[in-house]
Structures are given as structure tokens and as C-alpha cells.
Amino acid sequence: MVDKTAPAGDESAAEPPDANTGAAADERLREVSAMTRLMRRPELGAIAGLVLVTVFFLLTANANMFTLAGIMNFMAPAAQLGILAIGAALLMVGGEFDLSVGSMVAFAGLIFGTCLVVLGIPLPGAIVITFIVAAAMGALNGQIVLRTGLPSFIVTLAFLFILRGLTLVGLKWATGGSTQLRGVKEAVGDSWLAGLFSGDALEGPFAWFASMGWVDTFKNGLPKVQGVPVEVIWFLIFAAVATWVLVRTRFGNWIFAAGGDSNAARNSGVAVNRVKTILFMLTACSAALVAILTVLDAGSTDARRGFQKEFEAIIAAVIGGCLLTGGYGSAIGAAIGAVIFGMVLIGLTYTTIDQDWYLVFLGGMLLTAVLFNNFIRKRATGER
Amino acid sequence: MAENGSANNSDALIDVRNVVKHFGSVIALAGVSMAVNRGQVLCLLGDNGAGKSTLIKTLAGVHKPTDGEFRVEGKAVDFDSPRDALDAGIATVYQDLAMIPLMSVTRNFFMGREPVKKLGPIGFINFDEADRVTREEMQKIGIDVRDPQQAVGTLSGGERQCVAIARAVYFGAKVLILDEPTSALGVAQTSMVLKYVDQVRNKGLGVIFITHNVRHAMAVGDRFTVLNRGKTLGNFSKEEITMDELQNLMAGGKELQQLSASLGGTV
What we know:
The complex is a heterodimer of chains A (about 375) and B (about 270). Chain A has one domain: ABC transporter involved in vitamin B12 uptake, BtuC (Orthogonal Bundle), CATH 1.10.3470. Chain A has 17 helices and 4 strands. In chain A, the strands form 2 sheets. A two-stranded antiparallel ribbon of chain A has the order 1-4. A two-stranded antiparallel sheet of chain A has the order 2-3. In chain A, helix 12 packs across helix 14 and helix 15 packs across helix 16. In chain B, strand 7 and strand 8 form a beta hairpin. The radius of gyration of chain B is 19 Å and the shape is globular. The two termini of chain B are about 35 Å apart. Chain B is an alpha/beta fold. Chain B has one domain: P-loop containing nucleotide triphosphate hydrolases (Rossmann fold). In chain B, the strands form 3 sheets. A 6-stranded mixed beta sheet of chain B has the order 6-9-10-3-11-12, sandwiched between helices. Chain B is built from 9 helices and 12 strands. The interface between A and B is large, with 37 and 41 residues.
């Protein structure tokens, strides 16, 4: 990363002194170099980080990490975090935080589990109810923030505790005293919808790859990796759609505007409150999606689900180029940030390094990303 | 209208009479009257706290007037939001510019009114079109934006003002409200903005130019309305008043005159 900053520094030194003001302003505009254009991309830091981490593990980790099976191993947790991180990133670009997403995962898990196991609602109904409840909680968060003008940091911090507490209380009520609710798999049965939210996808193509000898197979001819975990598919689709919405659509422009300067946006006719409320609902729904995926996968839900995920999601978003002050960031960057997380979390098990370094890495990465982003933003926008 | 000395003809784009605005116990506007015509620059002068900002925010649909008449092109209006005012052709360029430094020139130019291209049910911003229009409109006012995707933060203060004005004009504003557009600018950039204001007037738009710099007001103004403590102190045409009279009226007291005299007339 250091060598990338060097040419930028040279440029500023070569910049002519600000001698003539006035009409000559155009001549003073420097030709935009390819480097500046590249640095204008908010996700540059995340890509640099991804390259760095990949190189690190190529050098230190067991070669199994970068086999197909190894990649699926770290992509599964990366995908779960990534879904949260993309929601968090959009909300951060929109100028708000949601510290309650981790607790929301647990709370949505409770709603989902209770619907299936206790109330006996079929899977499609349970999924719809879970999303509706999550969206309602997100809207509540948003309305409190917007109507009171309080920082979303404080409001959602309150909900971090409220939702976690409600989950504990709710689980004990639903199970008669336990903080774990089992029996989800039995309740789901063989619903056609379960395949969309659990297990592997693309099994057909993988079997075909195996028959063509393109992927590693067991002795009986079955592929070692039977498919892509569904959460990875959800993650990739969500990343693609969120990125497209953010950079290509009117709603995306409004997200940037609402986060950049909500007053200026309002004065220009942007429906700031609606944008922010939708983003809060989206963030909560991404937590609900993660809850549904993980609960169906594990067959149970418990009160510690999603613990501290809000921080990891925000860190991934920041690594992905989101500014804490809003108005700037990237969904694809947050997705890459989440992949970096997954790589380090799982990758360390392929090395001889003590896994507890993970937390040190986490903090270090956050600090580096913030410093890097700050620098990039000043360079790229010519902010004074 | 006559009693307020406003230009009384059918050309009035905005006609405000005895507008009152209360914020709780605070009387921000206590009966303000003014009118703006097509192809005219009305300078709204007043010291801090005179009610300039409240008045323009009322015109721009941010505040609802507590009492009084507000007509746009002869029709009584009642705005619920800035959007309503925009739709009625009243565009405001605020002191804080309504520009977002981290966003590109194009994104800022079209903020809130993005050109949407439809592909089946999915709509997305037509960036080719948006970039082209932005570059063209900037060229018209003599700013060569090489890369419309560059952040607004890279433009100078004067250029940013001109982008904001160009945006309002492009989107069909009939009346342009400029809130202290020159207050933070240097000499050259101020003249750039004033020149552009003159261009806008020649296009037949009405301009409300808020300032407390009498020199800038005199440079482009056709009519002058002076506010003091939430009231209209007077409406004047350019011939009726001199720069010094305007200055004294604005200050509204003898103290400043004395101070000005003791400082050699430099205030």
C-alpha cells in the first residue's frame, strides 16, 4: 500500500503554486492521472487488503486453503458476514449506523424458530413473518432516529441491548427455560423452499464438473465439493444488486446524497427520510436473512447468535471504503472486506499461527483501513 | 402592493405581502412585502437577524408562513415542501450550496432529478446523458469540467456557486433565490458569480439576491429591498438610492455611520 501513495505525494509536490487566481482556473486543473482515477474508487483499499491477505496465506498457509474445498470453507462465514456488511455499508453511505444488526440476527432467529417450532407455521409463512418483523424493527429504529434527531449510534446501541434481551426472554418463554430452541429441521420437514435457504446450490454443475474431471473427486466419482453453500450465492447476488443500486440508480444517488449532506439533499428534493428508513429496514432484513440461513443450517437457534456481528459488519464496511461520516463508500468493497474476514478467520487454521491473532488482526485492519480511506478521500476529492 | 413601493405590473413573478412568520414566541418576520419581476435582480439586504434567511426559506417552501399573502405569477400558493416550490419554478441556491463535496459534479447537478432510463421494469440513471448535459451546461458558463465524474469538492467556491446556479436554471427555474452567493468568495470569483447572475437575468429569470455587501448588490441589482428586525424598511429602484444610503439603511443606526466616518468610510 505504501508504494501506491508515493506517486501521489510526488504529484502534490509538482503542483504549481497557487499564484494566479481567477479566470485561469481551468488551466490549473491537473490532468487526472490514472492513479487518481483508481484512487477515486472507494473499494481500492479493500482490494489492496484482499491481495495482501491472499499473498500472506499463499506464503504461510497449507496449500489446502486454496483448493476448492478450502475456498468454500472460508467463503461460508465470509458470506454470512458479508450479507450483514453490505446492509451496513449501504446504511453507512446513507449517513447512519445500525449497531443492532447482531442482536437482530438473534432476534430474527427467535421469531423464525418460534414460528416454525412453537407455532407450527410452515416454512414460507415463517420466512415472511421473520422478514416483516425485522423490517418493522428496522423502520422503528429509523423513525426514532429521524424523528428525534438523535444520533443513530445511540438509538441502535439501545436496540443492541433491547433485542438481545428480548431474544433471551423470548427463548426462555418459547422453550420453557432454555436459551436454545431446537427442532427446526423436524419442523421444516422437506419444504420445497428449504433448498433456497440451506445446503448447497449448483450441485448439478459440480457433479458434471466431477464427471469431466475438472474438480477433485472421491474414489466413487462424487465431487469432493458437492456445490456452493447457498449463503455464498445469496451473498454474491446481494453484493451485485446492492452495488448496482448504489452506483447506477436514482435511489443510489439519493443514498449518497442523504449521507453526504442531508440538508442539501432535502433542499434538492431528495426524500431523505424515506431513503434512510428504507435503509434501516434493509439492514434489519439482511440480519433476518442471515438468521434464516444460519438457523436452517444449524437446525436450532440460540441467544448468542450474531454476537458482536454488528462490529464486524461495520469493520468490513469500513475496510470496503465506507466513511464513518457517511456519503461515501461501496457495497462491493464491504463484500470484499467480509471475504478478507473469512480468509483470516479460517485461514489461520491452515497455518501454525495461534488463532487468537484473529482479534489483533481485526483491530489492526480497521485502523489501517480508516487511515488509508481518510488519506484516499483527501487525495481523490481534492478536499481542502 | 403600491403602498410598499413594489414594482406594480403584470410581470411580477413573486409577490409577497405582509408575510408573518413566528417560531414559538419568536417573531422572525413581522409583515414583509416584496416583489420580483421577470428579468430583474432584486437585492434583499439586511443585517444579521433581519429575517432574510427566514424570508427566503418561506419562499422556498422550507417554512410555512404564519400569515400573509404569497403569490407566484399572480396565483396564491401554499407550499408544503421545498419540492412544491421547485415545481412552481422557485429554485434556491443556499449558502451551504446544496452541493455535496464528495459526490461528482454530475451526481450533484442531477441530485433529486436524475434522468432515468427504463429497461423493462428496472430504471437506472442514464449517466452518458447526465455527463453530457453537465459538461455542456458548465461550458455555457465558461467552466470547463474535463471530467464530470470528478468530485464537487475539487471545484473552487465560485465554480461551485456557478454549478448550483446552472443546475437551477437548467431545471427550469423562473425565480432564482441566491443566498449570499458571494459572501465567502474572493474578488475574482465574486465577479465570476456576478457576471453569471447578470447572464441569468438577461435570460428573463427573476433573481432574488441576498447579500449584506452593498457593493455587490449595487453591481447587479435592479431593485433593493431592505429588511430590519423582521420588517420591510423600504423598497427602492436603482435610481432612487445611492450606495451610502443603502449602507446606512441596512445598518439602521447612527453608530455605524459614526464608526464608518472615524474609519474613513471603509465599513
